Amino acid sequence: MSMAERLTIGAATRPKLARHARLRFDTARGLWLLLAPERVLLPDPIAVEVLELSDGIRTVRDVAENLSQKYDAPLDRIATDVTAMLQSLADKGFVAAADGVRP
Known about the structure:
By secondary structure, the chain is of the alpha+beta class.
């Protein structure tokens, strides 16, 4: 992806896994895997929650609000962390925006 095509994650972005990425639970190892061609990441439990909520319908703000309420944590902090995590995964090609929307 060129810099001109770089997805910038913002509060209104509706993130989802990229077409070629899959989130799978490996029962043999008892852990989650984020898979893409020739790449594997081992997301922590919070990252798994963020990815499960990133369904292309909810916005980043919706995801952050959900987690803020669930964990009784400050929304601003959660939103910052969720945005940073999703941006990192978008930069690596694991996350896309629904319908190609780039806020």
